[in-house]
Amino acid sequence: MKIVRSADIEIIPASHEDIESPRVFKKIILQMADIIDGRIQMINWAFLPVGKSFRGHYHEDMQEIFILIKGEAQIFVNNEQAELCEGDTVVVPVGSVHRMENIGKNDIEYIVIGVAKGTRGRTIIV
Fold first, then answer.
1. What CATH code is carried by the domain that includes residue 22?
2. What confidence tens digit (pLDDT) does each residue in 5-17 have?
3. Domains: count for the chain
4. With a threshold of 0.85, does the pTM exceed it?
5. Which string of DSSP letters, residue by residue, matches 101-124?
């Protein structure tokens, strides 16, 4: 599991901007080396209500990237766990059992991107 804390990322001008007078800024969350070779299997905007969690599962040939938009979560990946806050990103490797729990006072909103090495990104519930 790789965690990227939004608070730790420098804000820089977008590459297409004039560096003397930029109008658009960015935070680089992930780069090519962080993502497996494959194809986008899915991009979802997901919601997790207060006090709920999704079932533990893994994907046979798919890496998942979670970007927390709103709320507070605890993520469990294999034998690791971490708390996430708004703006944090977590990369779940292929074949890693994972689940997320809403530990905050509000519903969670997050973007999840699946990158599959094969053709299906098959999900296995544990």
1. 2.60.120.10
2. 999 999 999 999 9
3. 1
4. yes
5. EE-SSS-EEEEEEEEESSS---EE
